[in-house]
Amino acid sequence: MPPPDRHPPAGRLTRQDAADVARLARIDLTDEELDMYSVQLAAVLEHAAQVAALDTAAVAPTAHPMPLRNVLRDDVVRPSLDRAEVLAQAPSVEDDRFRVPRILGEAP
User: What is the pTM of this model?
Assistant: First the structure.
């Protein structure tokens, strides 16, 4: 014999369901908050059920509502600054790199 369904029919959310969700989220709610959130959660689930019931067979799947295009330029190899010249301008250099102060006491 299958175990009894402890959840009410779709569309009916109990205060205990809201308490279970709060426990899973590790949120401690007062009795007043449980009453308020059980009503709000029921409304959210009802709206989700309405959306799920829509016929979307003719709607193409999308990841974004607006068409996106790449606005970045193509990578083009160009001459850059001379490494030795740049390092010569630095206040401090170590092992052909800029030497900067340690951050938050990190070891080198």
Answer: 0.46
